[in-house]
Amino acid sequence: MPVHSTRLAALRDQLARQQLDGFIVPLTDEHLSEYVGAYAQRLAWLTGFGGSAGTAVVLTDGAAIFTDGRYTLQVREQVSAADWTYVDVPQTPVAVWLAAHAPAGARIGYDAWLHPQIWVDDTAAALAATGAVLVAVDANPVDAIWADRPAPSPAPLTVQADAHAGVPSAAKRAAIADWLVARRADAVVLSALDSIAWLLNIRGGDVDHTPVALAYAILHADGATDLFVAPGKIDDAVRQHLGNAVRLHDRTAFAAALHDLAGKRVVADPAGSVAAIVQVLAAGGATVVAERDPVLLAKAIKNPVEIAGHRAASARDGAALTRFLHWAATTCPAGTETELSAAAKLLEFRQATGCLIDTSFATISATGAHGASPHYHVTPESDAPILSGQLYLIDSGGQYADGTTDVTRVLPIGPPTPEMRDRFTRVLKGHIAIATAVFPDGTCGGQIDALARAPLWQAGLDYGHGTGHGIGAYLSVHEGPQRIAKPDYPGGQALEPLRAGMMLSNEPGYYKAGEYGIRIENLLLVEPRTIPGGDPDRAMLGFETLTFAPIERDLIDPALLTPHEIAWLNAYHATVTQIIGTQLDGEVLQWLLEKCAPVG
Predict the structure, then answer these.
(1) Domain 301-592 is of which CATH architecture?
(2) Do the domains 158-298 and 301-592 sit in the same CATH topology, yes or no?
(3) Per-residue model confidence (pLDDT) at position 576
(4) Please, what's the b/e burial string for 215-249 (b: 16 or more CB within 10 A of its CB; e: otherwise)?
């Protein structure tokens, strides 16, 4: 029997021992992180799915795996159709599927340390309508059968110096304390790892690609903070940095500390905190105040030091990417390189900067049909040669002490077809539409998402992912609360107003199943705009492009571009040569100048 079929059978046996008729397995950890440590990769261990977002539901007589449009192809390649039904979200949420498939009276288990309270409430209501019940387990049944489950990372904490953070931790804590006082709350529980890292100006190494440490924090209305983290992660430098106002506790003491908040008004994010936190607080006698994590918005609006740091990181990263693009353009047509070897080469160029700490996510190195899976992850088993006649897509980023980068480029290996040039140019038109958008302060990402899609819609085309996500300052490559996406994007992020200082990606795409994928991605900074002749009382916003690397001119059909779009492209490439050209020389510089020559 295949290994994942064996594991599924073992889980069903364990569910029977725990008197459960089903169990829900999300891809997250007890902090609701997007990227998780090896110890929390329950979904991958159980199913074989290697994507970064998904959920599994196991019933006595069936099982389903839920993924969104980014993973439609990948999940079918990695997860056995003999064992699992593929379900697309958000079209069919987990709760809706369970309500249709769970037998009356069924006990469906869930781990309260892996789901937000808002999800628990919605799912319990959906099951109640069918006579089934949602049951919080005392012990996760997947962990019970995962014999060689890795231990959490022991990586130490490090200090994010004020020279990169821009604002001292004490000032950040004071601002959140004032927020609590204004709401007559006594404390806020913080469980999001990047919120804790930003608030305390610390970083860690517990999660691949994201410089955070496994920890919890409770910040009180007087500014004092309790930090719960494994003691071995703290050295004298971190202890001195945190100071006396931050009390240190073992991470295992967190649940007990929640009971100590009895009688107090405690803020807990109903969407960003796991249900166990809300349940333990309520059971211990605290009054739970359902408010969004107050760090979320403060972290999203970058201060001048963070913005300057990102510009420096982006210029450095752009030069490394340009060296790679030159290498790929001159080497890959020979057919001797593969997706893995190309990704390794890009890593070499980034490491040569001497500043790279980590990649900001697992590089998407995808040629031909693999490019049609937006979040394809190359493995030794899937590694494909990069061959003439294909489009090669590279989506990658770096973690530097002064900033986090994320950029996507596409190269033709050999002459592109007219269809490839048409699709690429339409994606470029959408990219330019976002880059040049001007909008009133208070506009949300869901209101401008259609600008990126309109050139594709005109040809009867679209793409199945959001157009832009927030990005952290040497933190998470995907950061909320803002997003550019269709208004019904899950979680409501597309309805978050855009504010000056926020950073987002701009990454429209097009994917032809079985043939190729196209995506053009730069990062943007939201900034104030003055419109001559406009209403002086109406604040306007626009975007500054932060990412600089050539956009492949051989894939552009100038006849499809308007004069405005050509002017933007030529101005962008002129800035690329100005920022990146000073870091290059010789053959690479000459190649860059040719790629950035005016179009039209």
Answers:
(1) Alpha-Beta Complex (3.90)
(2) no
(3) 98
(4) bbbbbbbebebbbbbbeebbeeebeebbeeebeeb
Q: What are the residue ranges spanned by the domains of the chain?
A: 3-145, 158-298, 301-592
Is the pLDDT at 77 greater than 90, yes or no?
no
Query: Are 451 and 436 within 8 A, CB to CB?
Result: no
**In a 10 Å sphere around its CB, with 0-12 CB exposed, 13-18 middle and 19+ buried, how is residue 574 labelled?**
middle
β-sheet bridge partners, residue 110: 136
Q: Please say whether the beta carbons of 2 and 243 come within 8 A.
A: no
Query: Which three-class secondary structure string do you get for 176-191?
Result: HHHHHHHCCCCEEEEC
Count the neighbouring beta carbons within 10 Å of the beta carbon of residue 584.
18
* Closest among 28, 79, 72 to 50, alpha carbons compared: 79
User: Per-residue b/e over 73-109, b at no fewer than 16 CB within 10 Å?
Assistant: bbbeebbeeebbeebebeeebbbbbbbebbeeebbbb
Report which of 157, 151, 150, 149 is spatially closest to residue 229, judged by C-alpha positions. 157
* The pair of three-digit structure tokens given for residue 545, joined into one six-digit string: 């492009």
Contact 414, 389 (CB under 8 A): yes
What is the DSSP secondary-structure string of 540-559?
A: EEEEEE-------GGG--GG
Q: Answer yes or no: CATH 3.40.50.10860 is held by domain 158-298.
A: no
Separation CA 315–CA 220 (nearest Å): 40
Q: Is the pLDDT of residue 492 over 80?
A: no
Q: Identify the pLDDT of residue 313.
A: 98
Cis peptide before 231 (omega within 30 of 0): no
As to burial, measured by CB atoms within 10 angstroms (0-12 exposed, 13-18 middle, 19+ buried), residue 540 is: middle
Joined tokens for residue 391:
């489009």
- What is the arrangement of strands in the sheet containing 398-400, beginning at the earlier edge strand? 358-359, 398-400, 403-404
For residue 27, what are the CA distances in angstroms to 116, 362, 383?
A: 13, 16, 24
Model pLDDT for residues 207-244, shown as the tens digit of each residue:
989 999 999 999 999 999 999 999 999 999 999 999 99
Distance between CA atoms of 479 and 468, rounded to whole angstroms?
10
This prediction has a pTM of: 0.94
- Look at phi and psi of residue 36 and say left if phi exceeds 0, alpha if psi is from -120 to 50, else beta: beta
Q: What is the pLDDT of residues 422-449, one digit of tens each?
A: 999 999 999 999 999 999 999 999 999 9
Q: Write out the two tokens for 401.
A: 């002490």
Q: For residue 308, how far is the Cα from the chain centroid?
A: 22
The DSSP symbol for 217 reads E
Determine the pLDDT at residue 68: 85
Which of 438, 441, 448, 442 minimizes the C-alpha distance to 531? 438
pLDDT score of 250: 98
Q: Which of 16-25, 342-351, 407-416, 489-498 bottoms out in mean pLDDT, i.e. has the lowest?
A: 489-498
108, 299, 355 from 225: Cα distances, Å: 37, 18, 32
The answer to whether residues 49 and 83 touch, using CB atoms and an 8 Å cutoff, is: no
The whole-angstrom distance between residue 269's C-alpha and the CA centroid of its chain comes to 19
Please check whether the domain covering 3-145 is classified as CATH 3.40.50.720. Answer: no
The tens digit of pLDDT for each residue in 358-400 reads 999 999 999 999 999 998 889 998 999 999 999 999 999 999 9
Upstream peptide bond of 90 is cis (omega within 30 degrees of 0): yes
